[in-house]
Design brief:
This protein is an all-alpha fold. The protein has one domain: MetI-like fold, CATH 1.10.3720.10. It is about 70% helix and about 0% strand. It is built from 14 helices and no strands. It has helices spanning about 10-20, 20-40, 80-115, 115-130, 135-145, 145-160, 165-180, 185-195, 195-210, 215-220, 225-235, 240-260, 275-280, 290-315. α3 packs parallel to α8 and α12 (about 240-260) runs antiparallel to α14 (about 290-315). The longest helix has about 35 residues, at about 80-115.
Length: about 325
């Protein structure tokens, strides 16, 4: 064997396999493009029009140089509303999915690895939480945590704008920050209760991997339980977790749209893709573009997540290393 030959890590091999998957790379490119547009463009206040400014004289305009996606039924710039709405939808999807998947991985991994009474107790807790009315609990949690959002908004605005900010800067910062901080109760409520399924998936995967020979070899070397679980077992369960995560993000985004429709999510006049789709459906006969553009952005994001999830599942599969 050549002494100059360098070994490659598991993650490098996974990246090389992912690059060969064209559908996954197209999905990754679209996610980066849409995500960066929705995150960066709202920070450029001179580039986008005010998404909440109404102009009843110029309602339902067709796309043009002044309004790239046209205007809605209240004369608001549809391009700005899609971009600002995408920022909220993406934030809801990513943050709540991260919270739920993190809790589910830790909970399921401990239950599957320790086993016995600990496993039985943790899984009975999951069964009890499954029995609770999900929507009702989230509504209650959101209402309980809602008074904290005003204080969080004020603190965030002054932190971002700085102590010496004038009134104009404070208003501009508030318009950028408030739609996100008002959704913190939604982030916490959905994330705190949507980890139940992933905990069961992780538990089953950990139980399957824990019986393999390399885990027994790690135990015989005297490695600690924490290192065996999080360094050797969990990396071999990433495939199903990643696929479930990519499918959870659009589901969470749609659930946020449901809460917003009930008046418990995005507060008017702010919007998310789900709210824009709901509004566009009401006016699809008079202005179909009001439905087309947000639905197009949401659909592209959903398909990109699915393609990327399938690619990541294949790339992180240990059996693929034999190819």
């Amino acid at each position: 064997m050549n002494s100059d030959e360098k070994g490659s890590s598991l993650w490098l091999d996974a990246w090389l396999r992912l690059r060969r998957n064209r559908a996954a790379m197209v999905g990754l490119f679209l996610l980066i493009l849409i995500g960066s547009s929705c995150i960066l463009l709202p920070a450029l206040t001179d580039f986008l029009k005010d998404p909440n400014k109404t102009d009843l004289v110029h309602r339902n305009l067709k796309p043009g140089a002044e309004h790239w996606f046209g205007t809605d039924h209240l004369g608001r710039d549809l391009f700005s509303r899609v971009i600002f709405g995408g920022r909220i939808s993406i934030a809801v999807g990513l943050i709540t999915t991260f919270v739920s998947v993190t809790i589910g991985i830790v909970w399921g991994a401990i239950a599957g690895y320790v086993g016995g009474r600990t496993d039985a107790f943790l899984m009975r807790v999951v069964d009890i939480l499954y029995a609770l009315p999900f929507l009702v609990v989230i509504i209650l949690l959101g209402k309980i945590l809602e008074p904290l959002t005003d204080q969080l908004t004020e603190s965030t605005v002054h932190l971002v704008a700085g102590e010496n900010a004038d009134t104009k800067q404070l208003v501009s910062t508030r318009n950028w920050v408030e739609p996100l901080t008002t959704l913190v109760p939604v982030f916490i409520a959905i994330g705190a209760l949507s980890w139940l399924t992933v905990s069961r998936i992780v538990r089953a995967q950990v139980q399957s991997v824990a019986s393999l020979d390399f885990v027994e070899a790690a135990r015989s070397l005297g490695l600690g339980h924490f290192r065996i679980l999080f360094r050797h077992i969990l990396p071999n369960t990433l495939g199903p977790i990643i696929v479930y995560t990519t499918l959870t993000i659009p589901g969470v985004m749609m659930f946020e749209a449901t809460l917003s429709f009930l008046g418990l999510g995005v507060k008017a006049p702010n919007s998310s893709w789900g709210v824009l789709i709901q509004e566009g459906a009401n006016f699809m006969l008079t202005n179909p573009l009001q439905l087309l553009f947000p639905a197009l952005f949401f659909s592209l994001t959903l398909f990109s997540l699915n393609f990327l999830g399938d690619g990541l599942r294949d790339a992180t599969d240990p059996k693929a290393a034999k190819d």
